C-alpha cells in the first residue's frame, strides 16, 4: 500500500506544504483529496461531506489540482482555449468565460500568448498556464504538485508571488514541493511524509526546527533558518524575518 494510517484535517484558508522524499506518498495522498484515488479504508471529507458519493467532476469544482507535469494537463490548440476549457465544462455563461479568462491571463502574465499553441510555451509559462487553467474555475481548494520544479529563479519568484496572492484571497492551498524557499515563503503549516505515513505535522517553525524529523526525510533547513540559528538569532525561517530580527536587535 502506498500510504496508510493518514489522519489529516486541513482548515479552510490554510496553506499547507507536504514534504518528503521521492516515493514517500505525497502525490498519492493528494490524489485522495480530489477523488482521483479512493481509500481502501477510511474516508475523505470535503466541507464535512464524504466525497465517496461524488463524481470526479463534482469534486473538481471544489478542488483544483495542478499536476506535477504541466504537459499532462495541456490538450487545447491555444492558450485561450486551454484556459476556457474548465469553465465551459462547468457550463459558465460564454460572456462570463471570456471576461474571466482575460482576467486570469492577465493575472498569470500570459496575455501575449493568448493565441499561442500551449506546447510552444517555455517551461515556466507552461506551469503558469497549468495554474491558470485551474484557478479560472475558482476552486475553493487548490492542490499544487511541485509547481516550481525546473523553473529558474525569476520564474520561481513569479510563481511564489502568484501563490501568495491566491492564498491571500482566502483559498485553501495544498502544496507539494522540494523547494524549501517556496515553502518558507508561502506555507504556514508543514506536513512531513515518510514511507506512506505522516511523521510530523506542525507550523512552519515547529517542523523546520525539528532537525531529527527533517533528517528522517532527508530535508535541509532553509538557508535563512540555518543562518539564524547559527547566529543565535532564533528560528527565523524567511530571509525577511532574519533581517527584521537583526534590525530589531540593533534598535
Ligand atoms: N497506482 C499505484 N499502485 C501501486 N503503487 C503505486 C501507485 N501509485 C504510486 N505507487 C507507489 O507509491 C509510492 C508513493 O508514490 P507517490 O507518487 O505518491 O510519491 P511522491 O511522494 O509523490 O514522490 P515524488 O516526490 O517522486 O513525486 C511509490 O513507491 C509509488 O511507486
Ligand atoms: Mg509526486
Give an overview of the whole structure.
The protein is an alpha/beta fold and 251 residues long. The chain folds into two domains: 15-217, 3-Layer(aba) Sandwich (Rossmann fold), CATH 3.40.50.300; 221-251, no CATH class. Helix content is 43%, strand content 14%. The chain has eleven helices and eight strands. The strands form two sheets. The protein has a six-stranded mixed beta sheet, with helices on both faces. Strands 2-3 form a two-stranded antiparallel sheet. The longest helix is centred in the middle third of the chain and has 16 residues, at 153-168. It is globular. The model has no long low-confidence stretch (mean pLDDT 91). Magnesium ion binds next to helix 1.
What is the strand and helix layout of this fold?
Blueprint: E1 15-19, H1 26-33, E2 45-46, E3 49-50, H2 56-62, E4 63-66, H3 79-89, H4 94-107, H5 123-135, E5 141-145, H6 153-168, E6 172-176, H7 180-186, E7 189-194, E8 197-203, H8 204-209, H9 211-216, H10 223-230, H11 239-250
Parallel strand pairs: 1-6, 1-7, 4-5, 5-6
Antiparallel strand pairs: 2-3, 7-8
Helix pairs in contact: 3-4, 3-5
Oligomer: single chain
Per CATH, the superfamily of the largest domain is P-loop containing nucleotide triphosphate hydrolases
Output the strand order for the largest sheet.
Answer: 4-5-6-1-7-8
Number of structurally distinct domains: 2
Low-confidence stretches: none
Distance between the termini: 55 Å
**What CATH first level of the largest domain would be assigned?**
Alpha Beta
Would you tell me the overall average pLDDT? Answer: 91
Question: How would you sum up the global shape?
Answer: globular
Fraction of residues in H or I helices: 40-55%
Tell me the radius of gyration.
19 Å
Task: Sketch the major β-sheet.
Answer: 6 strands, mixed
CATH-scheme architecture of the largest domain: 3-Layer(aba) Sandwich
Counting DSSP E segments of at least 2 residues, the number of strands comes to 8
The helix/strand series, from N terminus to C terminus, equals EHEEHEHHHEHEHEEHHHH
Task: Tell me which ligands are bound.
Answer: adenosine-5'-triphosphate, magnesium ion
Which fold name is given in CATH as the topology of the largest domain? Rossmann fold
Amino acid at each position: 500500500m502506498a500510504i496508510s494510517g493518514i489522519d489529516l484535517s486541513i482548515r479552510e484558508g490554510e496553506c499547507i506544504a507536504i514534504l518528503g522524499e521521492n516515493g514517500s506518498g505525497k502525490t498519492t495522498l493528494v490524489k485522495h483529496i480530489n477523488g482521483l484515488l479512493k481509500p481502501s479504508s477510511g474516508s475523505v471529507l470535503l466541507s464535512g461531506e464524504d466525497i465517496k458519493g461524488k463524481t470526479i467532476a463534482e469534486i473538481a469544482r471544489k478542488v483544483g489540482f495542478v499536476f506535477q507535469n504541466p504537459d499532462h494537463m495541456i490538450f487545447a490548440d491555444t492558450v485561450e482555449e486551454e484556459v476556457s476549457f474548465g469553465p465551459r465544462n462547468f457550463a459558465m455563461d460564454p460572456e462570463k468565460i471570456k471576461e474571466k479568462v482575460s482576467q486570469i491571463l492577465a493575472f498569470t502574465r500570459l496575455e501575449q500568448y493568448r493565441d499561442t499553441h500551449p506546447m510552444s510555451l517555455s517551461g515556466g509559462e507552461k506551469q503558469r498556464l497549468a495554474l491558470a487553467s485551474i484557478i479560472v474555475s475558482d476552486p475553493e481548494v487548490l492542490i499544487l504538485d511541485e509547481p516550481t520544479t525546473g523553473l529558474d529563479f525569476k520564474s520561481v519568484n513569479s510563481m511564489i508571488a502568484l501563490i501568495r496572492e491566491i492564498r491571500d484571497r482566502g483559498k485553501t492551498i495544498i502544496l507539494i514541493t522540494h523547494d524549501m524557499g517556496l515553502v518558507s515563503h508561502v506555507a504556514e503549516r508543514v506536513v512531513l511524509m515518510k514511507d506512506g505515513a505522516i511523521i510530523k505535522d506542525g507550523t512552519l517553525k515547529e517542523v523546520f526546527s525539528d532537525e531529527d524529523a527533517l533528517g528522517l526525510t532527508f530535508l535541509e533547513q532553509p538557508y535563512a533558518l540555518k543562518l539564524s540559528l547559527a547566529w543565535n538569532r532564533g528560528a527565523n525561517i524567511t530571509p525577511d524575518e532574519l533581517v527584521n530580527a537583526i534590525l530589531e536587535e540593533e534598535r
